[in-house]
């Protein structure tokens, strides 16, 4: 499911079990043997709802909150808008199915220029800011032979986006990388794109790779990519050309919020977040949010496998808080998801641990750095991790109560 603060360590391609979904969807790490995945018709029946008085929820909130209202500030609205854009930003795997391994931060909610600066020389972010950068989203993955970072940046209007694309390309061309000044390079089939390239030798490699950065104005957006490949310049520019062609029609489906109305963006339009145990204190920009399935792919350890999992089980939304909630088609598929998740962590070497007390369909496992628990709750699948088993069990219990009590 989620990422650098991953809940599970998954196989690269899932696994097969007899009668349930056997595919993993979560976490950034990709460890262990690859296997196939499949979904058979669920055979489990709906489970009775466990009364809250039988569950130990510890100090976790277990009473539903009112649905969150508007963002309330431009800053919170900009982050919410960037998360909304995630559904309309393609992942590198949409360009090349082998690009699924985590790379750097793997995903970026770009609500400020400072986040954009993490993707390249600071001068590029400064150029974007000077032309009214509103926000954006980026997705980054790699394989053994290539890296691709795909991002969509939003600007106030098409003129600002066009000016920003040129200014960012100029900033990239003027920023030497390890003493090497980038050269201008064309992107085949996309004369509107401005790109630069330079050689780069990754650690452990015996020959230089080709690196290309590209900036392409597209309406009020700038489509920007960074690729590194061992296959030479043509492969690098070809990968970017495909990314541009794939990304353009997808972002065309996004309806931007007026910049003046960012503070009015609703934070919980589905209402699911009101029934999710949220992160308290310092919150990462991806957390305490609900994502539709296409957006949720950016946070999966293997998005190609997760796409199949979500389709097979009818997942329509993923809430990411302190616990994570998958809204699936029905109670049978929710049970299948949790059983599959549990089998995955066991396959990776985790050891079975005591299930959540009073939740007979829950599963827990001990991992080197903590504990992982899953449980179905009606049409929802819950997963959580923690340092200690009792607290992890309590978190799942609290999340169960939130989802099942009216």
UniProtKB/TrEMBL annotation:
InterPro entries for this protein: DUF7373, DUF7373_C
Signal found in the keyword field: yes
Keywords attached to this entry: Signal
Domain DUF7373: 69-267, 272-405
Extent of the signal sequence: 1-29
Keyword set includes Hydrolase: no
Superkingdom: Bacteria
Record-given protein name: Lipoprotein
Originating organism: Mycolicibacterium fluoranthenivorans
């Amino acid at each position: 499911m989620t990422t650098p603060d991953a809940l599970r360590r998954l196989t690269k391609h899932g696994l097969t079990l007899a009668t349930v979904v056997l595919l993993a969807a979560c976490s950034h790490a990709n460890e262990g043997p690859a296997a196939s995945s499949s979904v058979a018709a669920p055979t489990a029946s709906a489970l009775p709802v466990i009364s809250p008085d039988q569950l130990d929820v510890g100090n976790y909130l277990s009473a539903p909150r009112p649905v969150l209202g508007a963002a309330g500030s431009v800053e919170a609205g900009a982050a919410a808008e960037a998360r909304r854009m995630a559904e309309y930003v393609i992942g590198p795997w949409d360009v090349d199915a082998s690009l699924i391994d985590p790379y750097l931060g793997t995903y970026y909610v770009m609500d400020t220029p400072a986040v954009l600066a993490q993707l390249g020389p600071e001068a590029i972010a400064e150029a974007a800011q000077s032309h009214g950068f509103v926000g954006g989203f980026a997705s980054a993955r790699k394989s053994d032979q290539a890296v691709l970072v795909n991002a969509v940046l939003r600007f106030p209007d098409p003129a600002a986006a066009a000016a920003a694309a040129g200014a960012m390309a100029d900033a990239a061309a003027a920023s030497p990388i390890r003493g090497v000044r980038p050269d201008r390079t064309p992107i085949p089939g996309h004369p509107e794109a401005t790109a630069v390239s330079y050689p780069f030798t990754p650690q452990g490699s015996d020959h230089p790779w080709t690196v290309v950065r590209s900036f392409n104005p597209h309406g009020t957006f700038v489509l920007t990519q960074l690729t590194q490949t061992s296959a030479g310049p043509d492969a690098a520019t070809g990968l970017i050309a495909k990314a541009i062609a794939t990304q353009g029609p997808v972002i065309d489906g996004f309806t931007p919020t007026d910049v003046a109305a960012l503070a009015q963006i609703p934070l919980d339009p589905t209402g699911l977040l009101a029934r999710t145990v949220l992160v308290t204190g310092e919150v990462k920009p991806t957390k305490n949010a609900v994502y539709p399935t296409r957006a949720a792919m950016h946070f999966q350890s293997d998005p190609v496998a997760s796409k199949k999992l979500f389709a097979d089980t009818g997942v329509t939304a993923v809430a990411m808080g302190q616990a994570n909630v998958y809204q699936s088609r029905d109670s049978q598929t929710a049970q299948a998801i949790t059983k599959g998740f549990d089998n995955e962590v066991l396959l990776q070497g985790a050891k079975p641990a005591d299930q959540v007390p009073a939740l007979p369909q829950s599963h827990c496992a001990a991992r080197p750095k903590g504990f992982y628990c899953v449980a179905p709750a009606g049409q929802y699948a819950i997963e959580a991790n923690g340092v200690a088993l009792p607290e992890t069990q309590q978190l799942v219990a609290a999340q169960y109560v939130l989802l099942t009590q009216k």
